[in-house]
Amino acid sequence: MIINHPLLGPRDAAEFVYLGDESLIERPDPNAPDAADRFYEYGYLRDNPAGEHKELWYHEQGDRSWLVVTRNTITHQITHVELARDVARAKGRDR
Amino acid sequence: MRYSGFKVFLEGLTGNRGWKPAWRDPEPKSDYDVIIIGGGGHGLSTAYYLSKVYGVRNVAVLEKGWLGSGNIGRNTTIIRSNYMLPGNEPFYEFSLKLWEGLEQDFNYNAMISQRSILNLFHSDPQRDAFVRRANAMMLAGADAELADEAQLRRELPFLDFDNARFPIKGGLFQRRGGTVRHDAVAWGYARGADAEGVDIIQNCEVTGFQIENGICKGVQTTKGAINAKKIAVCVAGSSGRVMAMAGMRLPIESHVLQAFVSEGLKPVLPGVITFGAGHFYVSQSDKGGLVFGGDIDAYNSYAQRGNLPVVEDVAEGGMAIMPMIGRARLLRSWGGIMDMSMDGSPFIDKTHIGGLYFNGGWCYGGFKATPASGYCYAHLLAKDEPHPVATEMRLDRFKRGHLIDEKGQGNQPNLH
Ligand SMILES: Cc1cc2nc3c(=O)[nH]c(=O)nc-3n(C[C@H](O)[C@H](O)[C@H](O)COP(=O)(O)OP(=O)(O)OC[C@H]3O[C@@H](n4cnc5c(N)ncnc54)[C@H](O)[C@@H]3O)c2cc1C
After folding, report:
1. Which of A92, B65, B213, B274 is the most buried (most CB within 10 A)?
2. B224-233 and B31-37: which strand pairing?
3. Which residues make Cβ contacts (< 8 Å) with residue B312, sequence separation at least 6?
4. pLDDT tops 90 at residue B1
5. C-alpha to C-alpha distance for B178 and B283, rounded to whole angstroms
6. Residue A23 covered by a domain
7. How many domains does chain A have?
8. How far is B111 from chain A, CA to nearest CA, in Å?
């Protein structure tokens, strides 16, 4: 697989480390009344879809940026790559 | 029809005209006591023990493709019970004991071969960890044997003992481990279940659940709606997809695992050898091919095929520990979808939906579990309580903090 890095252009997926579902960006609020339940879901439950999947890849052997890659889990085709920082900011996070 | 040497002889004399199909090909009925979704190894063994041991008669297995099209026909056929944790080891030892009597029990030649499995170690701390595991195995009634370097040099002279990065210092044997003809396991259980009256329905994909007021009453399939008192999901790599139809999210990610086989060679490997540090394991099939593999591809996938970096990684691991493998030509490679769980251990449990049961999360190690998984799932379905060796394999264990994490890797499925 080739990941089209937004800053560095096309890179071999072997340069990256895979973390998992993009939802891992959205860490629950530890002060919420239902924090224990929300952390259980955040830590352990996954949508695991067959088809389009947004997921986190880390460019360990490159510029060490985190990317959100949109990839089809049935065909392995990658359709969209963004910097995780930009995705997090668009969700209202400060970084 | 019972298979026997005498029967083979008799059929040979009479033109082999007496053989019959090993199982029927029925149309689904409208109602069953138990529907098992997934005709892989675990679904078929569940049906077999459910009818034969627990006496539940009105049972169907629904398989979306043909029998053996999933992981049961794609794995590298290794059986063993060399686990460590109390939630796992008694279960896997129960499974190995069932393997030992299986061919007589279901009257089918599954080519079960207890040719041993060896885990190599390369340092003192790794040796200590293996000694600890060996002790845990023996406490659960399994066999374990520690071998030093000199013994391994005698038994397996072709290994690269003086490897610069991972010199071989010894290994942990389980002599009762080995390999099995994987397809024959599916066929043997299918034939055995069919003989007990189980309807095995192929090319019948489950496309939805009929859930009313929190109770599952049946399934929709490509062959129409079918009702049942209990619905037992057993779809391995498709677990996420199927349970999503019941509105459930699971502590599971699907990943692809690749495997490889070389051209046929004269016998060179006495048993199974695993080189964990180098992500490589190998055995030799009875046809002579070297059967080997390594790590999963490490990204979510339902594609049943992997990518080149892992092919390279496995080849490098093989060359590092067993340089003679470089002379063999690769014949085939393939992939299967693993239901990787959050702690690397499986589930055999009820769900919060009445009448709906779940078996999955087998990672890359579910073949060896086939007999015990079916036995324990059948126990749960028949009695609504877990079998004594499967009490820890619960879906809510992450919420309670009772993980069964053999490697201590945490909630990162691609590291288990
Ligand atoms: C390359 C490879 C090597 C492996 N090596 C080993 C090994 O050496 N030792 C070991 O112990 N384990 C090994 N495994 C793991 C082992 O094969 C699996 O854990 C085990 O086979 C899973 O259980 P199963 O046989 O029931 O799965 P499967 O055979 O995959 O059965 C699941 C079935 O469910 C069906 N299904 C899915 N969705 C639906 C639906 N909607 N409706 C109806 N049916 C459906 C599928 O078609 C499939 O036939 C390996 C796996 C792979 C891929």
Report:
1. B274
2. parallel
3. none
4. no
5. 9
6. yes
7. 1
8. 34
Q: In Å, how far is A19's CA from the nearest CA of chain B?
A: 8
**Do the Cβ atoms of B412 and A20 come within 8 Å?**
yes
The model carries a pTM of: 0.97
Q: Which residues of chain B does A75 touch, with a Cβ-Cβ cutoff of 8 Å?
A: 303
Q: Would you state the pLDDT for residue A93?
A: 81
| Band of pLDDT at residue B28, cut at 50, 70 and 90 | very high
CB contact under 8 A, B414 and A43: no
Q: Alpha-carbon distance B106 to B7, whole Å?
A: 16
Asked if A71 is an interface residue toward chain B (Cβ–Cβ < 8 A), one would say yes
Ligand 1 cavity residues, CB under 6 Å: B 37-43, 62-65, 69-72, 74-78, 205-206, 234-238, 242, 257, 259, 293, 336, 362, 364-368
Is residue A75, in this structure, part of any structural domain at all?
Answer: yes
For B339, name the nearest residue in chain A, comparing CA atoms only. A48
Q: With respect to residue A68, please indicate whether it lies within any of the assigned structural domains.
A: yes
Domain assignment present for A95: no
Q: What domain range includes position A48?
A: 2-27+34-90
Question: Is residue A50 within 8 Å of A57, Cβ to Cβ?
Answer: no
Give the integer Cα–Cα distance in Å for B293 and B318: 9
Query: What ipTM describes this predicted complex?
Result: 0.96
CB-CB neighbors (< 8 A) of A71 in chain B:
299
